[in-house]
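Batch job 17 of 40 flagged for manual review because the log was empty.
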Amino acid sequence: MESDNGAFMEKFTLPPFSSSGELPLAGLTFAVKDIFDLEGFVTGFGNPDWARTHTPAKSTAPAVLALLKAGATCVGKTVMDEMAYSINGENMHYGTPKNPCAADRIPGGSSSGSAVAVGANIVDLSLGTDTGGSVRVPAAFCKIYGIRPSHGVVSVDGVIPMAQSFDTVGWFARDPAILKRVGNVLLPPLDHPLVTPSQIIVAEDCFKLLNIPIDRVKQVLVKSVEKSFGGQVLKYMDIGDYVKDNVPSLKHFMNQGDDTKVYSIPSLVALSSAMRILQRNEFKVNHGEWVSSNKPNLGAGLKERIWEAVWAKDDNIDICHSVRTELRAALSSLLGDVGILAIPTVPGPPPKLQTEASTLETFRARAFSLLSIAGVSGFCQVSIPLGLYDDLPVSVSLLAKHGSDMFLLNLVETLSGTLGEHIDAAVKSSL
């Protein structure tokens, strides 16, 4: 396990359905988060009490079957946060997968093992799930590419639900070409060729949430866009103001608690509050009875959140649904068919292992302000690695309209070459 960075729950080989070298994923290996059903294996959901109380799966999840049919070989199941209820990547039962970029830092979760397996060059690609950020966060922390696809476009059959109106099947890769090859297998085909984006909106207020120099992230992206598509596509705005003005139902969640004293985008703090209410409500419906009956042994911090969900009496569910509808309409209007929104994936480098709980919670709250944009709208988002700053991984994210997944993956691949040039220049200038 040490040689595999602790990424795997169990290693085995599921060969592709065909050995044809003409298949789109021929010769590639992949790993699967322990939330996907594999026929004959118990799906463990990150917790030994869950594994103990459930029987082996009778069939394999369609997303996994699609990769096998496309010529890829599955080599094992990966560690995840318990019940997918964290973005840290720490698991007290099975160990915390070692971040390949920074061994003293968390790998990010809940798809921690899947991200680490790719980042450590153990597999070519891996499957994870993203409900609140569980692909985007570990991709950012492990310096790899990760996609949260548009909600509902990839089958979640055979995947244990966390909160199904947010759950997505996402994937990781070290380069955008493989990320796109997987997209060609799992996503609906693109009905038009790659075009220049109509606009790439840089969310200025979101970049101000970063705890590293803003230019180290923003300027790398801006210069790459200018070289690839021309500076005329770039626009700058405060997305928080736009959301506040165009999502009227958010007023029910504004100025709640102390978050607005700390974080500079009150409307996104409110958006993340609505997202958490909906997610914990769905989690309670899905798993509240099992948690109450079995009283599983859960890790610190995560235990409190899971029981909070089980005991929650949320009265604003209908308003939360209104927020979702209004946000999707507002962002669709803003971006159009081929517009892009650029934000940081996370507010900074991965926190250290065993970070004090209150400090970690502050980071989580800032992160969810960013993660909730795609989470609530259902839009697709790709996290793109931008190298290292002070020896820690840096990333940026691009978001596109619901259903524009292949357009986004094509655009990311196009940008990747010029990004590499400007990443190198930024690193040299910071030395």
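Reviewer: the log was empty due to a logging misconfiguration, but the result itself is present. Residues 266-294 form the longest helix (29 residues). Unflagging and moving on to job 18.
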